[in-house]
Amino acid sequence: MDDEIQLISDGDGLAVLGDPAAVERFLVSEGLESKDLGLPRLGSVLSAGAVAAQAGSEIAANSGRWMKMTKDSARLVEKHGLRKNANGLNTGVLKGSHGQIKGFVEFTKGSLLTNPAVLAGAAGIMAQLAMQQAMDEITDYLATIDKKVDDVLRAQKDSVFADLIGVDFVLREAMTIREQVGRVSEVTWSKVQATTLTIATTQAYALRQLDALAEKLEGESKIGELAKTAKEAKSTAQEWLAVLARCFQLQDAIAILELDRVLDAAPDELDHHRLALRAARNNRLDLISKSTERLMARMDAAAGTANTKVLLHPTSSREVVDSSNHVAQNVVEFHGRLGIERGRESLEARRWTDAATEVRDKAFDAGADGVGAAKRLGNETFDLARSTTGKLSSRLTDRVRRRRTDEEADQQD
Questions:
Q1: Residue pair 314/400 in contact by the 8 Å Cβ criterion
Q2: CA-CA distance, 378 to 375, in Å (whole number)?
Q3: What is the pLDDT of residues 202-229, one digit of tens each?
C-alpha cells in the first residue's frame, strides 16, 4: 500500500502529516528533527455530522509533526514543489511505497487537508508552535544576559514596569493551565486579555529610551562627550533590548492563547485571525527594527567621528569605537533572536565593510599610522570581521601611542 505524506508550509514552519510510520520514515530519510503538531486539537474545528466524523477518524489515524523553517526545511518546500493556496499556505501531497517518496501529486478527494476547516486549524496550530519556538529562543537569549531583565524592571521607578512583572506571572499561569487542560476557557482568557496594554506601554517606553540614546549621540560633537555618551549606550542599550525581548515574548504568549480561544469559540474565524495576528506581529518587528537600527546608525556615525580624531584623542576615540562595536554585537544578537535580520544582511555587510576600508585607506593616505576599528554588522561573517577590525584598531592605536612616547623621549634627550 502506498504511503501518503501531506505537507503544509506557512513560511515560518513546515508540517508533515500522514500515517505515523510513514511520517517517521520520511523525516528520518530527510534528516529532520520535529515536534508533535498536536493533531487531536483539530477536533474542535469540525462541525457535527458524517463529514466531521470521517475527518475526525482521519485525524485520529494520522500523525502530525512540525519543524521550524530553516534552510533544510525550506529545501524540502522547494524540492517537492509545494503549491500556494488561497490562504497563502504552501501545500502538497507526496506518495511512495514503503517510505520511498516518488514525487509530488495533487490532493486527492479523501485527503485530510481537503477539509478547509482542518487546514485552517492546522495552520493555526503551526502558528502557535512557531511563536512558542520564538519564545523559547528569547528565554535562552535572556539567560545569557548577566543582568536579568527582572532586575532591570525592578530598578525602574515607573509603575508600568512593576505591572509588567505581574503580567508575566498571569501569562505563565495561563500557559500552564492551557498545557494541563488542552484549551483556553473563557475564564482563563478573561484573566489575560487586559494585559496587552501594559505590555505595549512598556515596549513603547523601552523604544523611547533607545531613541533618546540615539538623539543624544547625534547631538554630540566633542570627542570627550561623545565617548561618555557612547559608554552610556554600551552599558544601558542591552538592558532596554532585554526589556523589548521580554515584551515580545509576552505578546507571543498572548497570541498563542488568543488562537486557542478563537479555535474553541469561533473556529470559522481562525484563519483570518491567524493572518491578522501575523500582520500585527510583523508590524511590531518593523517598529523595533527601525528603532534599533537608528541607534546603530548613530553609533556608527560616532565611530566614524572617532576614527577621524584618533591621532589627537587616541583613548577617547578607542572608547567610542569599542562602545560602537559592543552595541552592534548586542543588536545583531537581539535581531537574530527575534528573526528581524533577514533581508538586509548582505547589504549591511557590504556597506559597513566598504566604510571601514575607506576610513582606513584615507587615514593611511594622510600619513596617519593609526585608525580606530570601523564598522561591522550584517551576516554570518560578522564575528570574524569584528574580531579582525578590533585587533587592527588595538595594534594601530597602540603603535601611535608608542611613537608619541618615543618622540617625546628623543626631545628630552
A1: yes
A2: 10
A3: 999 999 999 999 998 887 778 888 888 8
